[in-house]
Amino acid sequence: MSERKEFRDLADPERAREVVASLDLSAGAERVALEDARGRVLAERVDATLDVPGFDRAAMDGYAVRATDTYGADADPVTLPVVGSVHAGETPGVTLDDGQAAEISTGAVMPAGADAVVIVERTEELDGAADGNGAGGSDGDSGDDAEGGRRVRIETAVTPGENVMLAGADIAAGERALGPGTELTPREIGLLSALGVDEVPVRAEPRVAIVSTGDELVRPGDDLDHRAGQIHDVNSYAVATAVEEAGGEPVVYPHVGDDTAAMEETLLDAAADCDLVLTSGSTSASAVDMVYRVVEDRGELLLHGVAIKPGKPMLVGRIGGESGDSESDETVRDGAAYVGLPGYPVSALTIFRTFVAPAIRSSAGLPEPRTASIDGEMAVAERTEEGRRRLLAVGLVEDEAGETLVYPVDKGSGATTTLTAADGVVDVPADTNRLSAGERVTVDLFSPDVRPPTLLGVGEDDPALSRVLDRLDRPRYLARGSRGGLRELRDGLPDVAVVAGPFDADEEGVADAADLGGWSREWGLVVPAGNPEGVTGPADLVDRDLSFVNRGTESGLRTSLSNALADLADDRGVDRQAVTESISGFDRAARAFESPARSVAAGDADAGLGLRATAAKLGLGFVPVGSQSVRVLANPDRLEKASVRELDGLLEDVSRVLDGLDGFERR
Amino acid sequence: MSERKEFRDLADPERAREVVASLDLSAGAERVALEDARGRVLAERVDATLDVPGFDRAAMDGYAVRATDTYGADADPVTLPVVGSVHAGETPGVTLDDGQAAEISTGAVMPAGADAVVIVERTEELDGAADGNGAGGSDGDSGDDAEGGRRVRIETAVTPGENVMLAGADIAAGERALGPGTELTPREIGLLSALGVDEVPVRAEPRVAIVSTGDELVRPGDDLDHRAGQIHDVNSYAVATAVEEAGGEPVVYPHVGDDTAAMEETLLDAAADCDLVLTSGSTSASAVDMVYRVVEDRGELLLHGVAIKPGKPMLVGRIGGESGDSESDETVRDGAAYVGLPGYPVSALTIFRTFVAPAIRSSAGLPEPRTASIDGEMAVAERTEEGRRRLLAVGLVEDEAGETLVYPVDKGSGATTTLTAADGVVDVPADTNRLSAGERVTVDLFSPDVRPPTLLGVGEDDPALSRVLDRLDRPRYLARGSRGGLRELRDGLPDVAVVAGPFDADEEGVADAADLGGWSREWGLVVPAGNPEGVTGPADLVDRDLSFVNRGTESGLRTSLSNALADLADDRGVDRQAVTESISGFDRAARAFESPARSVAAGDADAGLGLRATAAKLGLGFVPVGSQSVRVLANPDRLEKASVRELDGLLEDVSRVLDGLDGFERR
């Protein structure tokens, strides 16, 4: 029965799925309070142990009667003495004889002797004192029985059982109410409540240990030492959340460093306490090898590596158990199931979703979610490595006609922003080495609830733009600089591009783009508070020994700086390159609009390219150089798209979002 | 701004939706720990406050170098001295000069002086001692710099930045990371972790008070007094679960009886503490009127009744606030939103789902779930009341070809089993008075995860059958007795019918049904333990003054008893009706197979029709009368359906499920 080891041979993905499925994750059953049972799955059948309702119950407000007393009442109304009233939640104080009626409310117990209810709308209660003697009832009993002389005129005939729910008619004691494996939604909770059940036997959630490995990990909330290469632990929290989503109970262990003994101890502790142990976080071969060795020594490795990208370093096995070397099934089963996830977050979540989540759901008894996929066409070409199946992370955007365009979003190894810039994956077969632009592909969405972003923008990053985006519903913005925005807009991918500084629309191939509006922003040199070096402008960067931090070549801010330096060179009659080469740090290109200013704040530079607003925000000094326009250019094919129109409307009244941003003005 | 009252006029459903949407449920924002943030929605934008990565980071295992030192290495490998090693999570202890390399692990800080990484697969580390002198490096530096004489042969050229992730390349401080309104899935949790965020600002879940009304309500787990008409509180728990599902925080209040002062106090308490107050549970007009009056007096009633079935008694308004009579917006806004749900559970959940859940989701910032609907054809005709739009609860079954058949499942007012026997609703317009069999309809599923049951069975209830059903995945079984099963099978609805006792297949119109197998069960009279009355058989019921409980006319058990009594009458040469009429309780028809026995156990009868197995289970006495077969008949058009084949397989080996059931035998 035990799976055979497969060393170093990359397993076929289907095979990997089978091996993971063969691991025994079942966590047994437990009893939970009805209030906590939502989303859980019944471990065993629940039979009714009582009748619902437990008594013959009036289904309408009206009068309880003997049906025989109402025959003919449609043609010739019948007047009956009212011998009492019965309300819901009380024991009837009356018994009906022939020719009597009792007022009754919905939900009340039918009084003995009654077998039907006449709805109140088909009756008229007559005033006892006034009508006690003269009421023309064809079947009126003596007024003495009536409560205070009350009488009711019945205007319709009823049959026995009419408007009555008999005891057990809903469900009766002994009946099968809900089967094992039933997922408990509000509807099942309602039925269980009716049956008086306040505690239900459910499948236990498999406990899933999450052990991140790597000396460099620091938990979110704690400070990083960048010089020591520390990074925040991403996988522990992302995978824990994914475990919860799949119906497991995550148990996050403190991360372990590259120490075999500590790793072994943590993994064995986790195996003793949990049904499944997941490791993740290690991206280095040495750490992976260390985990590999522990699983080999203290468990059983069933699979090493799967022929899919990402996912090559996936490990599958069992860990714990008295002797992992033994081939005895029983011994091995004492341990926990084990899966080693790749270290990069996008890879870890992809492998988790593809191979591990189905096993957890199966253990928890949860059905596979309705798979959601969207067909679309590749907006750009993508090369893939032949010979290995690939799950290509992609983003989506809809064109004006509602057609879905698909674009790859991987920013490269380990980027965490890929997590949120992607909507799903395209499963590219091993024998495909290229997806062409315009090719039809199917995108498996990360969840059935994923919707394409309403708006896709690409371009310069800017604080006013962030505020504009906040007012839109689910936009996606890729900060790839003004040059990146223009390039993508020319290729027709985004709905809008955001461009800062001067550009030539014809030269950029975006002459037909629509200018939706924008603003201007004051830029210059961000310096330490109080400007201790007395920097006066770009010329000082050239002439003095000041360290500088620039923006990247894609940035519109850098374009404006380069233009200013070109003017300076021209004024001085010198070569432009000579000017830039004499600036210490001209090629030190920071990623985002605040980055150079933050380097200044950290004492790492004397000046940085940036905005007056950023200097004000960070409490730094500012040497103004100029003002540049920020323009929102719309894809000419998307002008009728709802989100583009909404953005156009917001930009009409852009002053609102500029409030409090120093140096920003309506254009 | 304030909505106008609309008394007693049934509102159009669209109008009702607008009025509910106009209620202000927004609960503001709160901060939650990252671990608890799954499924929550960001209340405000989150910008990166640090660069990710925070340092120039090796993206691969290999050797950190200056790219210029590797030029030409593809053709002519270069050997460099290895001046140190840098691992992830440590501060580099080396600085690279021209012509040097340092071993580096993925995730490690690039040492100063290095600008690229050569991946380990394209290198070969030479043994320092052996090769220190003789290695043919074209650019080898002095062996003195190398760590213990280590040298590495570089077999490929790299460009500056190759296999390095620059600081901030993933996301940089100041960049917009996630916008307000973003739902937090594992992917967003991953990005937030990377940013070091351990607490996130999220939309608060609206607090939703649930106040059930009615003197008759008892919480599940507590005993009922049937004589006093007590029932378990279904709506509090079902609606609370539905509130959770919609993203609200349910607050279940103790139910209130028909006491205006107590109701007013509870509603005002709830309004002070919650964003929305729901009442439900009252089915009687008087209780509804009472709630109505409290809302009128201490709040504002905006809508009373909606033109939809179920839902007529829906109330919408606001409650609390200093003076509900005031027309001042401000005063009214101090209170909570209020919605009165109908009393019957199916109605309450339908109205909740249709009108209230969207408002809660909107307040919590959650998107509307992908609506799921299935097209199918009506398996039977259904009359509807013209003039009022109706949400008809229906069940689904797939035929062999995968076509979906739709059938109404409402068992009548207040039935809780309708909750779980239905899969969704058909929205029937007000001007339609009939759905014909075969008519195409669209079913709005209760949730996108609803799947039609794998198997639909109708017929006799039976303890062995319950066990068989437990072994199938998501079957649905409607216990409508053997006669009901035969009728439905003849009409072609179910996959299988289960029939106990004798029947004539030709007469029933099921001659072409396939007999999948079955078992036999011993039946007779269940009597108190020890059989104190010394009952010997059916003749005693006729001849002696014994009170009896029968099963309903649909039941196969009753058929067998009636046959036995007919034989008795024939033996005695008397009229059959005379025999049954002399049995006290022959018409006392109980709903389920255990019900008569339970009446005996409760001391309510001297004998009940039932099974030996039931008597054994309940510790009662048993007087055997006969044995009857229980047969599972398959719809001839469904024989190839997977679940029918699976059931057929189970019945092959039915002995397993009969184990421990007294009087059951394989047929």
Automatic annotation (TrEMBL), chains A, B:
Region called Disordered, residue ranges:
127-149
Keyword annotations: Molybdenum cofactor biosynthesis
Q: PROSITE patterns, per this entry? A: MOCF_BIOSYNTHESIS_2
**SUPFAM superfamilies for this protein:** MoeA C-terminal domain-like (SSF63867), MoeA N-terminal region -like (SSF63882), Molybdenum cofactor biosynthesis proteins (SSF53218), Periplasmic binding protein-like II (SSF53850)
**Which pathway features in its UniProt record?**
Cofactor biosynthesis; molybdopterin biosynthesis
Classify the source by domain of life: Archaea
Q: Which GO terms describe its cellular component?
A: cytoplasm
Q: Kindly give the Pfam families that the UniProt entry links to this protein.
A: MoCF_biosynth, MoeA_C, MoeA_N, PBP_like
Which stretches are annotated as coiled coil? none
Q: Where is the composition biased (Gly residues)?
A: 131-140
Keyword check for Transmembrane, yes or no: no
Picking any one GO biological process from the record gives:
Mo-molybdopterin cofactor biosynthetic process
Domain annotation MoaB/Mog: ranges: 209-362
Q: Which GO molecular-function terms appear in the entry?
A: molybdopterin molybdotransferase activity
Q: Which NCBIfam families match?
A: Glp_gephyrin, molyb_syn, PRK14498.1
Report what the protein is called: Molybdopterin biosynthesis protein
Q: To which species is this protein native?
A: Halosimplex pelagicum
Species lineage, top-down? Archaea, Methanobacteriati, Methanobacteriota, Stenosarchaea group, Halobacteria
